[in-house]
Amino acid sequence: DAGVTQSPTHLIKTRGQQVTLRCSPKSGHDTVSWYQQALGQGPQFIFQYYEEEERQRGNFPDRFSGHQFPNYSSELNVNALLLGDSALYLCASSPGLRAYNEQFFGPGTRLTVL
Amino acid sequence: ILNVEQSPQSLHVQEGDSTNFTCSFPSSNFYALHWYRWETAKSPEALFVMTLNGDEKKKGRISATLNTKEGYSYLYIKGSQPEDSATYLCAFIPPLRSGNTGKLIFGQGTTLQVKP
């Protein structure tokens, strides 16, 4: 049973560019959440998708957008990249929207913005 | 703003030592608390989900307690081994009435190094 997978593992972009990160949830999971972890900090919640809709959003600008597909996989898009967007981006999946369900994390995508 | 604080930030112990760390969260706004272990170059792995005041959970040599009235959780590792070296993250979930559907608010983590 494959766990949560993310692609790519590493990415280097320049300021102003756009990036798309991808996530496939654990088998049987229909809810995907995205987190950003900057150096020295804990992961920060970006948004959560369920039934192809954004259900909850953290304090991130509109440059951060996402999508969930019918097979529950998800994309995170970031437009007009800034140096401060350099971080590890984690995807987590869970079964349903119950808040006490443990979340299963992928290995992350390391984004570097030059 | 809901703040989750973990202490200490880092910890170095010898193999065989027992250790504990603290996660502090807003006591007036509680739904659940998660503990995760994050080894270098791997994915964060769930250790415990705690929901009730007084909860005590155990997995092998690792255990956790929860005090929702005073807003803290302790994670204990008995007889630390080198393979316990990792960053330990706690994540707080505020009540569902605030529209939350599983948003995790993480602390900054405690990094444990166990020397053989």
Features:
heterodimer; A: 114 residues; mainly beta; seven-stranded mixed sheet; four-stranded antiparallel sheet; B: 116 residues; six-stranded mixed sheet; five-stranded antiparallel sheet; 0% helix
Q: What's the short story on this structure?
A:
The complex is a heterodimer of chains A (114) and B (116). Chain A is an all-beta fold.
What does this structure look like?
- The complex is a heterodimer of chains A (114) and B (116).
- In chain A, strand 4 and strand 5 form a beta hairpin.
- Chain A is built from no helices and 11 strands.
- In chain A, the strands form 2 sheets. In chain A, strands 2, 4, 5, 6, 9, 10 and 11 form a 7-stranded mixed beta sheet that branches. A 4-stranded antiparallel beta sheet of chain A has the order 1-3-8-7, with no helix packed on it.
- Chain A is mainly β.
- The N and C termini of chain A lie far apart (37 Å).
- Chain A has strands at residues 5-7, 10-13, 19-24, 31-37, 44-50, 53-57, 64-68, 74-78, 87-94, 104-105, 109-113.
- Chain B has strands at residues 5-7, 10-14, 19-24, 32-38, 45-50, 56-59, 62-67, 72-77, 86-93, 105-106, 110-115.
- Chain B is an all-beta fold.
- In chain B, a hairpin with a 4-residue loop joins strand 7 and strand 8 (72-77).
- In chain B, strands 2, 4, 5, 9, 10 and 11 form a 6-stranded mixed beta sheet that branches. A 5-stranded antiparallel beta sheet of chain B has the order 1-3-8-7-6, with no helix packed on it.
- The interface between A and B is medium-sized, with 31 and 29 residues.
Mean of all residue-level pLDDT scores of chain A:
94
Radius of gyration of chain B: 14 Å
Number of helices of chain B: 0
- Oligomeric grouping of the chains: heterodimer
Q: Structural class from helices and strands of chain B? A: mainly beta
Assess the beta-strand content of chain B as a share of residues: over 45%
Total beta-strand segments of chain A: 11
End-to-end separation of chain A: 37 Å
Largest interface: A-B, 31 and 29 residues
Q: Estimate the strand proportion of chain A.
A: over 45%
Distance between the termini of chain B: 41 Å
Kindly state the number of beta strands of chain B. Answer: 11
State the shape of chain B.
Answer: globular
Rounded radius of gyration of chain A (Å): 13 Å
Structural class of chain A: mainly beta
Please bin the fraction of helical residues of chain B: under 10%
Inertia-based shape of chain A: globular
Poorly predicted runs of chain A are: none
Proportion of residues in helical segments of chain A = under 10%
Low-confidence stretches of chain B: none
Order of helices and strands of chain A: EEEEEEEEEEE
